């Protein structure tokens, strides 16, 4: 296999999703891989030449006739052209919002299209073992390639140092993480109120200015706006320049969707040298060494409040955890050490699915 084409969605013309960069475009363009493989990408199939492999990310690339007809057409076209394909996803779209019928995404037809693509693919590549367990029901040839940060975007490991006064707690997440933030609203309000200005909160994403103000009612809270740097590949550089946090939070409300998520927040915070508090749930429990590279916190308001207050008061412990997390991420969770796993996964899946 020397030539590969990635079919993916996009925010707008020429703007692939951030997950597309993290999971495919950055790994496949890494020198460890690009010396063995050439690839193209887009929302449509190439017209002039057939690749050795097509990677379909997350869902059918077109929506003109609906997800299922688009998936059926793609599978039929690839079969006619004798081009194998692999399905890749970092999210459990099969179970997202199943308990929230008022949410428009994803609709049942999209779930059906995801099932179709997973079943018909030569294999499936996912980001976590929990997600692999879900997709192996559809395709036994499902393998895990964990997320990794791209050291080309994050730069070399930096020095861990105190950010300044006031003490700054940070939280970062997309709009789908609003429920996670609400898990720690009470503890955060109590901590900020007692600190009387000596502690502040900075939030990236999640909610708009009005909602954030309503949540915290005049307490010292700010929303940071990355602007045009919000999406990959520019976001890591913005984080490195802009986040001066003494402590970062990663609460996670667990359901059938979130239990399959990855530890990407740990990778981001660790690479930036920020000590973190993480929900004591599978996505983080399988990675973080409690008390060494981060703290795992039970799902209880008192536990979160105690953990936040404890780390605010213990700078040496924050320093040790931040350094340990940074060293571990740069030692074993960068593309410099992980990029070739993508090439190996694709090669193995194609070989296993080929007739003898």
SSE arrangement:
Blueprint: E1 3-7, E2 10-12, E3 15-16, H1 18-29, H2 31-34, E4 38-42, E5 53-57, H3 67-80, E6 85-88, H4 108-120, E7 123-126, H5 129-135, E8 142-144, H6 151-154, E9 167-173, H7 178-183, H8 185-195, E10 199-205, H9 209-216, E11 221-224, H10 235-242, E12 247-250, H11 264-271, E13 276-279, H12 282-285, E14 295-297, H13 301-312, H14 315-332, H15 335-338, H16 340-353
Parallel strand pairs: 1-4, 1-5, 5-6, 6-7, 7-8, 9-10, 9-12, 10-11, 12-13, 13-14
Antiparallel strand pairs: 2-3
Helix pairs in contact: 3-4, 8-13, 11-14
Describe the structure.
With 356 residues, the chain is an alpha/beta fold. It has two domains: 165 residues, Rossmann fold; 181 residues, 3-Layer(aba) Sandwich (Rossmann fold). Helices cover 41% and strands 17% of the residues. The protein is built from 16 helices and 14 strands. The strands form three sheets. A six-stranded parallel β-sheet has the order 4-1-5-6-7-8, with helices on both faces. A six-stranded parallel β-sheet has the order 11-10-9-12-13-14, with helices on both faces. Helix 11 links the parallel strand 12 and strand 13. Helix 3 runs parallel beside helix 4, helix 8 packs parallel to helix 13 and helix 11 packs across helix 14. The longest helix has 18 residues. The two termini are 17 Å apart. The relative contact order is 0.14. The model has no long low-confidence stretch (mean pLDDT 91).
Shape category: globular
Strand content: 15-25%
Number of helical regions: 16
Backbone structural class: alpha/beta
Tell me the Rg in angstroms: 21 Å
Query: If classified by CATH, what would the architecture of the largest domain be?
Result: 3-Layer(aba) Sandwich
- The CATH C-level name of the largest domain is Alpha Beta
Poorly predicted tracts of residues:
none
CATH fold-type name of the largest domain: Rossmann fold
Helix percentage: 40-55%
Number of DSSP strands? Answer: 14
Q: What's the CATH superfamily of the largest domain, by name?
A: Glycogen Phosphorylase B
Domains, number: 2
How far is the N terminus from the C terminus? 17 Å
> Biggest β-sheet, characterized?
6 strands, parallel
- Write the element-wise H/E pattern from the N-terminal end onward: EEEHHEEHEHEHEHEHHEHEHEHEHEHHHH
Side-by-side strand order of the widest sheet:
4-1-5-6-7-8
């Amino acid at each position: 296999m020397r030539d590969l084409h990635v079919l993916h969605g996009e925010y707008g013309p020429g703007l692939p999703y951030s997950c597309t960069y993290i999971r495919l475009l950055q790994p496949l363009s890494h020198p460890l891989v690009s010396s063995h493989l050439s690839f193209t990408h887009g929302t449509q199939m190439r017209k002039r030449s057939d690749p050795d492999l097509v990677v379909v990310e997350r869902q059918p690339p077109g929506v003109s006739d609906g997800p299922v007809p688009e998936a059926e057409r793609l599978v039929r076209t690839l079969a006619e052209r004798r081009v194998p394909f692999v399905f890749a996803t970092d999210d459990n779209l099969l179970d997202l919002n199943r308990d929230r019928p008022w949410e428009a995404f994803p609709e049942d037809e999209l779930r059906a299209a995801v099932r179709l693509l997973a079943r018909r693919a030569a294999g499936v590549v996912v980001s976590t073992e929990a997600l692999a367990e879900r997709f192996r029901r559809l395709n036994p040839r499902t393998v895990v390639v964990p997320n990794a940060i791209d050291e080309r975007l994050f730069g070399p490991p930096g020095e861990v140092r105190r950010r300044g006064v006031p003490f700054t707690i940070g939280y970062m997440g997309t709009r789908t993480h609003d429920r996670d933030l609400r898990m720690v609203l009470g503890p955060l309000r109590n901590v900020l109120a007692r600190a009387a200005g000596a502690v502040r909160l900075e939030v990236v994403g999640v909610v708009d200015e009005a909602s954030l103000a309503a949540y915290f009612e005049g307490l010292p809270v700010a929303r940071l706006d990355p602007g045009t740097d919000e999406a990959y590949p520019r976001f890591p550089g913005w984080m490195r320049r802009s986040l001066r946090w003494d402590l970062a939070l990663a609460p996670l409300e667990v359901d059938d969707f979130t239990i399959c998520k990855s530890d990407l927040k740990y990778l981001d915070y660790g690479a930036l040298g920020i000590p973190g508090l993480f929900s004591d749930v599978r996505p983080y429990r399988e990675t973080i060494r409690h008390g060494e590279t981060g703290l795992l916190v039970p799902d209880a308001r008192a536990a979160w409040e105690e953990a936040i207050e404890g780390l605010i008061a213990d700078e040496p412990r924050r320093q040790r955890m931040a350094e340990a997390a940074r060293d571990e991420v740069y030692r074993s969770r960068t593309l410099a050490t992980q990029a070739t796993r993508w090439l190996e996964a694709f090669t193995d899946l194609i070989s296993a699915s080929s007739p003898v």
